[in-house]
Specification:
408 residues, alpha+beta, Rossmann fold, Dna Ligase, domain 1, D-amino Acid Aminotransferase, Chain A, domain 1, 4-stranded parallel β-sheet, 12 helices, 19 strands, 27% strand
């Protein structure tokens, strides 16, 4: 068998590894010639992965048996369309992929099926009279971007005008969603739908940089600090989404906010969590969602049995930098050898120009750490931060340690 993997980030390295372990030849397509997953694939194509005809042409040329990706919401739309046009297996059809990839369609369906979410409007031009029916602060989002790109919080109309222009520029379709701000802590819910039934795997906190108008994740943390009432609401919401969007066999990622027992769903996608999320799930509940995604694509029933991994606290910490040119990492290999870090995943290659912290895609690496208590985690991380460096081309340490505070 042969598979076409679309997008070549950190999760796709694991996807390719697992495909090859099954004896499946791998073809990788990515828009970055230095994609981190490139060395792991059998064949590589440098191509705009949102160019449907180009991706389809690769699939036809290589005579692949299926096309897939993991941990990438907008790429899922490409995979679904190419698979449908070529008659290849895919766990989601193109229409459903459109519904779960477009924030406008998503919010519309949320309102119809009773999923709690904030009031909003959608537009391809800013109509200030229409905006006046919403209450500031307002959150502005491109309808088809990812990694928090273009997502800003506007305190007044002046900021809204500026942030709307940014979001409109980032959106490939030109569509922008403007919604009321819900004050609360963000939760990330990873679930899996089989036979139309949603099963919750892991609920985690998504901790974000303290910024007045941006939403940049610096940490994913298990277990989430939420009430039993919120957990019950999450189960109900997951099932409503599965039924309302017609998901039968699919991974499911839901992002929501909670304030006490009140919840508001930000968005969801029929995919596994991005970046290193599959590791957070694996270390917390023992389920490998990348394995499960391959299984459902191939028509195999996935193993979703929750297991006691023995880890009371599981954290994915993301590393950001001050502006500079990245040269190399120091100390991380030693931390891995000492068992202080379970997994270390670099995202950027030597020579990458780092422009600061504006979105979650600005991270340079991530690390997974487990502990039996908050005190043990904080001690581990202090030792790690004292021992590691992200070295710039000028020899200086450009790592933003201040963005990784102790757990409270």
């Amino acid at each position: 068998m042969k598979a076409l993997v679309v997008a070549g980030g950190i999760p796709q390295i694991e996807l390719i590894r697992q495909l090859k372990s099954r004896g499946i030849e791998t073809v990788l397509a990515d828009g970055n010639p230095a994609a981190v997953a490139r060395p792991y694939a059998d064949i590589f194509y440098h191509v705009d992965i949102f160019d449907i005809p180009a991706v389809k042409a690769i699939a036809e040329k290589e005579k692949v048996d299926f096309v897939l990706t993991v941990c990438a919401d907008q790429v899922l739309l490409v995979v679904a369309q190419v698979s449908e046009e070529l008659g290849l297996p895919c766990y989601i059809d193109y229409k459903t992929a459109q519904d779960v990839s477009d924030k406008i369609k998503m919010k519309t369906i949320f309102k119809r099926i009773g999923v709690p979410t904030t009031d909003y409007l959608t537009t391809d031009r800013l109509d200030e009279e229409e905006v006046s029916r919403l209450r500031f602060p307002l959150v502005v989002k491109p309808v088809d971007a990812y990694s928090s790109k273009g997502v800003r919080k506007a305190a007044d109309m002046d900021e809204l005008r500026r942030f709307y222009a940014e979001a409109h520029e980032i959106s490939r379709s030109g569509g922008v969603i403007i919604e009321e701000y819900f004050s609360g802590e963000e939760i990330s819910v990873d679930a899996f739908v089989t036979g139309g039934k949603a099963k919750i795997l892991t609920v985690t906190n998504s901790e974000k940089v303290k910024d007045k108008d941006r939403f940049v994740i610096f940490r994913g943390r298990y277990p989430a600090a939420v009430s039993e009432t919120v957990l019950r609401k999450i189960e109900e919401i997951a099932q409503k989404i599965a039924e309302g969007f017609g998901l039968v066999d699919s991974p499911l990622l839901i992002q929501l906010l909670h304030n006490g027992d009140d919840v508001s769903v930000l968005e969801f996608c029929a995919r596994t969590g991005g970046s290193m999320k599959w590791l957070l799930i694996k270390y917390s509940c023992g389920v490998d969602v990348i394995t499960a995604t391959i299984d459902i694509t191939l028509g195999i029933k996935p193993d979703l049995e929750l297991k006691d991994t023995g880890h009371k606290i599981v954290v994915n910490d993301f590393i950001y930098c001050r502006p500079g040119v990245f040269d190399h990492f120091e100390g991380f290999d030693e931390m891995l050898e000492q068992g202080l870090i379970n997994e270390f995943k670099p995202v950027r290659a030597k020579g990458t120009v780092m422009r600061g912290v504006t979105s979650s895609s600005d991270r340079i690496a991530g690390m997974n750490i487990t502990a039996d208590s908050i005190e043990e985690f904080n001690e581990k991380e202090k030792r790690i931060l004292d021992a590691v460096k992200v070295v710039g081309a000028d020899g200086s340490d450009i790592m933003r340690r201040d963005l990784l505070p102790p757990l409270a």
